[in-house]
Amino acid sequence: MLKITPIDGEREPYRSPDLIWNGKAGTVAVNPLTHPDAPGDLRAEQGLATQVLICLMTDRRVEVSELRDGDENRGWIGDSFDLETGETPLGSRLWLLRRSAIFDGIEVTVEDYVREALQPIIDQGAAVSLDVAVTANRPMNRVDYTVTLYGRDGGRIYDSKFEILWRQIDGVANPLAG
């Protein structure tokens, strides 16, 4: 399970490095050599955005009954037997849709999968609520969804649009910025 650790008093906890997502794969972000404090070190300035990417872009293991003929289960094998009480499997089930057509009602399925994947962020208190808006663009043969997370004061703390399914995303130089 993903754990988001708040800063504890005077010491700063380990901060996981930022991920850069190019639409097909994630890689860790590195500070430029001109960075004033940590030149060339792993960048760790966008923890919440990185946690969202991990939750959404990691394939979650599913029940065998959810697989189509010929599909192999994906995700971390440990999620099938090594979950502690209160933990949920890591990742999303969005990968199950990759071989599907854009069917009627796909918006509801995508929203359910996204909410399920991001629930650990809510459960851990890193955000208090989320909105998911899904649009199927049948002529363009794609589905877009927007994720918005809200903090304790009701303010927006994360907002990003994702394009998934049936089309490769062109590389994005800095998807976590903004």
Structure report:
With 178 residues, the chain is an alpha+beta fold. It contains two helices and five strands; from the N terminus they run E-E-H-H-E-E-E. The protein has helices at residues 47-57, 106-123; strands spanning 19-21, 26-28, 129-137, 142-150, 156-164. A three-stranded antiparallel sheet has the order 3-4-5, with helices on one face. The longest helix is centred in the middle third of the chain and has 18 residues, at 106-123. The chain starts with 18 loop residues before the first strand and ends in a 14-residue tail after the last strand. It comes from Pseudorhizobium halotolerans.
Entry summary:
16% of the residues lie in helices and 19% in strands. It is an alpha+beta fold. Strand 1 (19-21) and strand 2 (26-28) form a beta hairpin.
- Estimate the mean pLDDT confidence: 77
- The order of strands across the largest sheet is 3-4-5
The structure class reads alpha+beta
Q: Which word captures the global form?
A: globular
- The total count of helices amounts to 2
Largest beta-sheet details: 3 strands, antiparallel
Euclidean distance between termini CA atoms: 27 Å
As a percent range, the share of helical residues equals 10-25%
Beta strand %: 15-25%
Residue ranges: pLDDT <50 for 5 or more in a row?
Answer: 1-9, 165-178
The sequence of SSEs as H and E is: EEHHEEE
Number of strands: 5
Rg value = 17 Å
Pfam families: GP46 (PF07409)
Protein name: Phage gp46-like protein
InterPro entries: Phage_Mu_Gp46
